[in-house]
């Protein structure tokens, strides 16, 4: 007997099983009408019609055209998600579009739950708004079909470890220690004080990133350089100065704080203007093994690593791709700015 010929008694008050959804998919592809499918499954025609509508999905043909068909997997996925809302008062309810939007923000756009919660509010297209803590809780509860803790850049907040005092660097006789940097810079209430670092790629490759982070606004400048060398660092700063002009560069880059890496040893080259006969900035060097003294830089590098993981060859990333990452970071909602981005703060400072 064909699987199209059997019949089942109609039952009420029961949900479709995955096996029944498979049968609906098979019968639907065979061109069987919903009422006939209902007779085969043993349910009402209305139940089948609702299921066919719920599980509709777009599929590609071999010639790259598309078609709309019922998918048992999609139908079951939506059923499983809806089942999680039973018995409890979940803010997310049965809003499947909101679920997909959150998954897109965190998985595809690589946002944290905090940034995602701000984006949902800014979008203004959903009736429900969720706090970042609620999103964290729902991820832990397994309410998202495709999203889990493995997609999170950092799983909740970790307790910061303490740091012991370290002795000042002594290998930069021509450069100034961070201990000599004006104390006012620590307050982060004046624009123009930057932290500088380089991000390297796969072992054996030369291309690197020059990363500049402004301490007050966390504005990010990311430039791809040929190698992690003094020459390339100074050359890229010269290029930025020529783009901005010497006067604007001096106002923008009042100070630069960097680590003791070999690529930063040419303090005179970093400070010397490529356009006029005067200094363009003041350079300060952090203490050895004290990455926390350039905390803004280190946090920015973590954001970059969401797109360029360790072990990747930076040479394979185009300048356009690097520019996109820079744009993403500068428009990223920040918790310590109450959901505002660096771009928003820059606009408030300089756009009248």
Question: Any idea what the shape is?
Answer: elongated
Biggest sheet character: 6 strands, mixed
Query: CATH class of the largest domain, please?
Result: Alpha Beta
Q: Hey, roughly how much beta strand do the residues contain?
A: 5-15%
Summarize the structure.
With 352 residues, the protein is an alpha/beta fold. The protein has three domains: 62 residues, Arc Repressor Mutant, subunit A, CATH 1.10.10; 64 residues, no CATH class; 175 residues, Nucleotidyltransferase, domain 5, CATH 3.30.420.10. It has 13 helices and eight strands.
Tell me what you see in this structure:
It is a single chain. This protein is an alpha/beta fold and 352 residues long. It folds into 3 domains: 18-79, Orthogonal Bundle (Arc Repressor Mutant, subunit A), CATH 1.10.10; 88-151, no CATH class; 176-350, Ribonuclease H-like superfamily/Ribonuclease H (Nucleotidyltransferase, domain 5). The chain contains 13 helices and 8 strands. The longest helix is centred in the C-terminal third of the chain and has 15 residues, at 230-244. The radius of gyration is 28 Å and the shape is elongated.
